[in-house]
TrEMBL record:
NCBIfam families per UniProt: ABC_phnC
Keywords assigned by UniProt, alphabetized: ATP-binding, Cell membrane, Membrane, Nucleotide-binding, Translocase, Transport
MF terms (GO), sorted A to Z: ATP binding
CDD domains: ABC_PhnC_transporter (cd03256)
Name under which the protein is recorded: Phosphonate ABC transporter ATP-binding protein
Keyword Magnesium applies: no
PROSITE patterns: ABC_TRANSPORTER_1, ABC_TRANSPORTER_2
Length: 267
């Protein structure tokens, strides 16, 4: 269980990106975080693992208050939170396998990782994960030889090999085409289900969020203005989150995508 209590972040510039946010995410639950640019989505995700230091409030992961940890304890606690990034954050000149194994850096000692001597069980798990995401045959390729969708699959494996309790996912599909975006969202949500993993997925594409997750949280100006199932996102609610827009088009898009996905499944 992840719990945020009155989580607040004011940057040095004076921008208050989060205003006393309270949020509970039960173990194994996947939720999408939506909201307009600047609403505080990235800040919220990054305050959880303290890549951004919250100004006030608490973050609890099960019985650990992450906001109260010193550097060493925080490093250990971060093993329990895998992160997936929009721009993949792979090391381009390393192979797919080496990039996946780098997810174990928080566990193996410095010299072992420096010499890239990972324990055999880590290597076995990396092969298993690559097989699961359909990239086994690419294990020895350099990261810079991959397509965007393939890179994101490597990013997913790197996060999962940490064996986390929680995935923090920041715009996983923003650099991908619509079909690859759906494949990646489907993969992330399936893997979470298989592993009983909780996830917070920061995503711009409302239709994609509605299609794949059971709970959507809407942020506006650093506050939660919606928290509910995807079908609760009525045009009025979307206007409250994003401002005036023709929402019928977005909602219809879900239906069209649905038809297309049935087509895909039949392929
Ligand atoms: N490093 C920073 N220094 C100062 N202000 C920042 C910093 N990062 C974010 N902000 C401000 O905090 C607010 C929230 O930004 P954040 O990036 O969390 O929003 P977001 O919802 O993720 O936006 P986007 O969808 O565009 O990524 C914005 O007003 C932004 O300008």
């Amino acid at each position: 269980m992840l719990r945020l209590k009155t989580l607040t972040k004011t940057y040095k510039t004076g921008d208050t990106a989060l205003k006393a946010v309270d949020l509970e995410v039960p173990s194994g639950q996947v939720l999408a975080l939506i909201g307009p640019s600047g609403a505080g989505k990235s800040t919220l995700i990054r305050c959880i693992n303290r890549l951004v230091e919250p100004t006030e409030g608490e973050v609890w992961l099960d019985e650990t208050e992450l906001t109260g940890l010193g550097a060493g304890a925080l490093r250990r606690a971060r093993r329990e939170m895998g992160m997936i990034f929009q721009e993949y954050a792979l090391v381009e000149r390393l192979t797919v396998m080496e990039n996946v194994l780098s997810g174990r850096l928080g566990y193996v000692g410095f010299w072992r990782s420096f010499l890239r001597r990972y324990p055999q069980k880590d290597v076995d798990e990396a092969f298993r994960l690559l097989d699961r995401v359909g990239l086994l045959h690419m294990a020895d390729k350099r990261a810079d030889e991959l397509s965007g969708g393939q890179r994101q699959r490597v990013g997913i494996c790197r996060a999962l090999i940490q064996d986390p309790k929680l995935l923090l996912v920041d715009e996983p599909t923003a650099s991908l085409d619509p079909k690859t975006s759906r494949q990646i969202m489907r993969l992330i949500t399936e893997l979470c289900r298989e592993r009983g993993l909780a996830a917070i997925i920061n995503i711009h594409d409302v239709a994609l969020a509605q299609r794949f997750v059971p709970r959507v949280v809407g942020l506006r100006f650093g506050e939660i203005v919606f928290d509910g199932p995807p079908d609760g996102l009525t045009p009025d609610k979307l206007t409250e989150i994003y401002g005036e827009e023709d929402w019928e088009a977005t909602i219809e898009k879900v239906d069209e995508d649905e038809a297309e996905s049935e087509g895909e499944a039949a392929e």
